[in-house]
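pasting for the record
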Amino acid sequence: MIGKTALSTVSLTGIALAATLLAAPAAPAAASAAPAASAASAVNPLPVTSCGTTISGDAYLPHDLACAGGTGVTVTDSGTLDLRGHRLIGPGRSAAGFGTSVGVELATPQEAAAVRVRNGTLTGWDTAVQMFDTGPVRADRLVVKHGRVGFDAIGGAVTIVHSRLVDLGSGVTSLFGAVTVRRSAVSGSGQGVNVSQARATVEHSLIRGNQNGVNCGEAACVVTDSALLSNEFAVFLYNFGSVQMHDDVVAGNTTGVLASDAGNTDVADISTTRFVRNGTGVRIDPTAGVTIQDSRFAHNEVGVYAQTSTDPIFDFHARPTLLRNVFRRNGDGVLITDPQSSSTLGGNRAFWNRGWGLFVAGQVTDLGGNVARHNGNPAQCYGVTCTTG
């Protein structure tokens, strides 16, 4: 976990956002404050008073509703399901596996307008919201917790705003779809945002205390203006998954970004991001190309690490590009040990690291302007020319 001392070293929008989300998380509004979704819904919204209800259009939850299993609410057409500050309660996590109980199941046509689920709590469901090749869903001011999967989307688009996803096997899982998480918090889960052959965008959000914060396999992910704190892997890339990261804070994770199983492709573009007190800030496996620029690394065991390939079949090697970054008070600033790697460095600065400032084995394109001072290894740099005076 990140303590106040650690976080005090970082002053960035993402940390301010994290503090805001932790101190005042998204909470359902009082029922009296819930606005009418439309003139039609204001005239005759459907009250959902029993489990297993099917709705087509606008509906609301007049009180807490606890279900022994099955599906809480099935939605067959566009509209708003307004929980009005109440809880839709499932039977708890099932030992039988995924999908045994479903809080809200979408059965809308693909061409339908978005279904809105808002202003309440979904708790204790194997799958809180489930969709299979349906129209889009927008979750607004929800708390989803204590279940196996928060949102399970096969096809379709999921947008989650001003919400909290807590204590789930997976906060959001998407296959062949699109996920947007905006101004929300995903915490204490196995997989925070988990996408495969899909797209994911995480904006102005807090991803904290998950095994994998953002998990991208054969997927294109974008993470901006967010705080990724105390995860085992803040961002995990595999099977050609890629990420663009800008203006984020990555702190207190075992590994900030792991780029692996990339098939010799460029998979990560990271800029203006701070990596603080991680085990490894960015780990580049031998199959991956990664670009990091205008970012800061402080108090990590290793800022950027690329290891030697041990694959007996494929002759893949890491391809890091490091431009105008600052490495300060890490164990090693940059540690690229693969003798067959191909690296490009320019304008980096490394100060007060306990070991190497910049250690770059293999083929190096040196763009100049690298500076290293006061690092523990007297040589300061290896494989790249550094100004040390």
